[in-house]
Amino acid sequence: MGGDARWWDEDAYRDSILTHTENQTRTIFRTVFAPSRNSSPDTIVAASSDGSIAAYSLSNCISSNVSAKSFSSLKTSSFTEAEPAVILQGHEGPVYDVKFYGGDEEALLLSCGDDGRIRGWKWGEITEDLQHIQGDHPSPALEFINPQHRGPWGALSPMPENNAIAVDVQGGTIFAAAGDSCAYGWDVEKSCMKMVFRGHTDYLQCIIARNSSNQIITGSEDGTARLWDCRNGKCIGVISTKSNKMLKEFASVNCVALDTSESWLACGSGKSLSIWNLPAFEYNDCRNW
Questions:
Q1: Which residues lie below 8 Å from residue 61, measured CB to CB, with a gap of 6+?
Q2: Nearest to 233 by CA among 267, 179, 183
Q3: Are residues 110 and 218 in the same domain?
Q4: According to the UniProt entry, where is the signal peptide (predicted)?
């Protein structure tokens, strides 16, 4: 079996190989449900290692798989690859987190990544005209850039990455956990930095807003989670994995989460999960996973 080599497109072949390799090795770092008018959201947004931000319709993904296979075969067969409804090239480098600022049609889709930037798109504009989005990527409605630090000889440090973001809609603030061991608070209305939270000794992995107490909580590679007062930027409490004798080894705090009452804090460190009662500020439970 032969072919006409005169029509061979070497560049297209190389591009197809690169695209296939990127798709096979792409990592999804974070997902979030998009705002919905009903109690069953249909759209999920994913942050990827290739710098893209993709929105998927869950109903379309499910229906395409059901129509392609019988129900019994779905249990054993691999699913077909989901096609995104919208793709934005959000950042130069991996996108580590996505969040929504607001919960209605005026909501902003926020993202942060390895390039040290926080970007926000108007979600209503994205959902209005999907065909236009596929052709020409819209410009972000807002952009915040992490500061670079000047060394003793005047040289600027590399741009610290943003590993996670949190939002306080009532306070008009976006918080970022950065790679320079600092957390930053950005004023959405004024488009400027309003506060820096310093105290960790290694880069930050995670951040969450405790809006009922006007606080944020950060987790770091230094093995601690810190509580911060957003009114003055001061650290008001430190939770350390070193002080927990039930943890078998020292580990960084990779993730933090609050319950709905914002009274209980879960900290993920290595293979362990510890639960803390914030009002009493005492250790309550720890499980190894």
A1: 82
A2: 183
A3: no
A4: none
For 94-112, write each residue's pLDDT tens digit.
999 999 999 877 899 999 9
Q: How many residues does the chain have?
A: 289
In a domain, 135, yes or no: yes
* CA distance readout (Å), 40 to 33, 55, 59, 267: 10, 16, 11, 28
Residue where the block lists tokens 């009452």: 261
Strand partners, 218: 207, 226
Residue-averaged pLDDT of the chain: 82
Q: Which among 145, 183, 191 has a CA at the least distance from the CA of 163?
A: 183
Q: Which residues of 137-172 are buried (b: 16+ CB within 10 A; e: fewer)?
A: eeebebebebbeeeeeeeeeeebbbbbbbbbbbebe
Could you tell me the residue range of the domain that residue 24 belongs to? 17-68+80-145
Contact criterion met (CB below 8 Å) for 179 and 203: yes
| 120 and 224 co-located in one domain | no
CATH number of the domain within which 129 lies? 2.130.10.10
Helices (H), the chain: 10-25, 58-68, 71-74, 123-128, 130-135
DSSP conformational letter for 150: B
Specify whether the CB–CB gap between 196 and 218 falls below 8 A. no
- The three-class DSSP label of residue 124 is helix
What is the Cα Rg of the chain in Å? 22
What is the residue whose two structure tokens read 């809006």?
A: 211
> What's the whole-model pTM score?
0.81
What's the gap between Cα 41 and its chain centre? 19
Residue 75 is which amino acid? K
